[in-house]
Design a protein that fits this description.
15% strand; alpha+beta; four-stranded antiparallel sheet; Beta-Lactamase; five-stranded mixed sheet; Heat Shock Protein 90
Length: 456
């Protein structure tokens, strides 16, 4: 928007500068013309005075000699005519008094009037300036003295003046743009820039960001109030989400603890109860992760041993159970390449794989392929399905809490599965990437840092 504002203001400054420069240029050209005309008018007056005697006596030899000498000295042709416009003395031959500029000047001068000042001299025009003065005796016009003044030097001076004016005009425009237009555009757009920065802050998750509306124009004040109301609504919605997850996880802890106590008693009597006890422990870990996801627990509360975990081996062990689940539903599960790679031991591999395979079976289409690869300094757990996939906008939202694709909102689910996966990956410095593979479908990659000193 600032560029558009500058694109409208800068041409206005240029137009105003041109309007201001045109009178100055005319002043330069007119001033040079007037200066030359006045200086040569004095010489023409002197010649008119010197021609008064010869025109009365008829002795024009001395007058012709003066004209030739003046021409040689100032490179300015001179001639004298009588009252009948006949040339009686000239510094050069071939004078044509029928030329329009000469005829106009002589008609005015022989009528006893001083000719008007010549127009402004511009560099792109050429020609000589005509300066005529009447020869008068006792109020009677005897003739006229005429100078044909060269104007090349004066036009060069005008050209230099116009070039200086142009240079000054460019400097003035640049100075105005830098010193006035740009600061004014920044001042005008400051509220919009503040709103833009605040929007980016909200996009990055800072929902407590607000914009100031004091001293702003009514339109911008309303826009700022609307933004603040929107940010407040988002903040409150996020708080309600956190409170919901925190309350749900808190409410689940008590019955899980009670169930674990009862199942521990049953485990002494039935070996099957030991498997139920393992599932209860797993549910407890899920509740703990939900608490971390809600922000009620600090990341990294869970402690594990420092021995790295082979992600490929852990995935293969968990896939044994999932192959049976997929086979029972007539779904094809393909185990792809499994490259060993050490990752942080506190990474909840089972839960991550459960979420990815459960989503692939519900929202995707078989076959579903699972692989573990290395990519530089990362170990990548990849789960691919062959369903409809997601659009480019939806791919950017994968992993957001409570977000669900418009195609899957009628299906059961909470929208927290991938959010938990992303939280778990982030807890060990990893990330979740969703992308469309060649051939259609969807690939979810969990990328976690590779532990280099892992002993394969």
């Amino acid at each position: 928007m600032r560029r558009r504002l500058l694109q409208s203001l800068v041409p206005m400054v240029i137009v105003l500068a041109i309007f201001a420069a045109v009178p100055l240029a005319n002043f330069i050209a007119t001033g040079a013309s007037r200066t030359l005309f006045l200086s040569r008018s004095n010489d023409a007056d002197w010649f008119a005075t010197m021609a008064e005697g010869p025109l009365q006596s008829g002795d024009i030899a001395s007058l012709r000699e003066l004209a030739v000498r003046y021409h040689q000295l100032y490179n300015t042709p001179v001639f004298v005519v009588d009252v009948d416009s006949r040339v009686i003395a000239t510094s050069r031959s071939g004078v044509n008094i029928a030329e329009p500029d000469l005829a106009t000047a002589l008609s005015s001068t022989l009528a006893g009037r001083l000719p008007a000042e010549p127009p402004a001299m511009w560099p792109w025009k050429s020609g000589e300036m005509v300066v005529a003065r009447p020869v008068v005796n006792n109020g009677r016009v005897l003739g006229a003295a005429v100078l044909r003044v060269p104007t090349e030097r004066a036009r060069d001076q005008v050209q230099n003046g116009l070039l200086l004016l142009l240079a000054g005009l460019i400097v003035a425009i640049v100075a105005v743009v830098i010193g006035i237009v740009r600061p004014v555009s920044r001042w005008v757009l400051r509220p919009i820039n503040d709103l833009d920065n605040a929007t980016h802050q909200v996009t990055r998750g800072a929902l407590d960001t607000r914009v100031s509306t004091d001293g702003r124009a009514p339109e911008l004040r309303r826009l700022g109030d609307s933004f603040n109301s929107m940010a407040l609504s988002l903040h409150q919605a996020r708080q309600r989400e956190r409170e919901f997850v925190a309350d749900a996880s808190h409410q689940l802890r008590t019955p899980l603890t009670s169930a674990r106590i009862h199942i521990e008693g049953l485990s002494r009597l039935s070996p099957t109860a030991r498997f139920a006890l393992s599932d209860i422990d797993r549910l407890g870990r899920i509740v703990q992760r939900l608490s971390r996801l809600a922000g009620s627990d600090r990341p990294g509360d869970a402690e594990g041993n420092e021995e790295p975990l082979d992600l490929a081996q852990a995935i293969k062990e968990r896939l044994v159970g999932w192959k049976a689940v997929y086979a029972a539903d007539d779904l094809e599960l393909i185990i792809g390449e499994m490259v060993p790679g050490g990752v942080a031991s506190e990474l909840e591999v089972d839960d991550i794989l459960d979420v990815l395979l459960d989503n692939a079976s519900k929202y995707g289409a078989p076959p579903v392929e699972v692989s573990v690869l290395r990519d530089g300094t990362e170990v990548v757990l990849s789960v691919r399905d062959h369903g409809l996939g997601l659009g480019s906008r939806d791919l950017k939202k994968v992993g957001e809490r409570f977000w669900r694709s418009a195609h899957h909102r009628e299906m059961p689910g909470t929208g927290l599965g991938l959010a938990i996966v992303r939280s778990e990956a982030a807890r060990v410095g990893g990330r979740v990437v969703a992308r469309p593979p060649i051939g259609g479908g969807l690939v979810i990659e969990v990328r976690v840092p590779l532990i280099d000193d892992y002993d394969l």
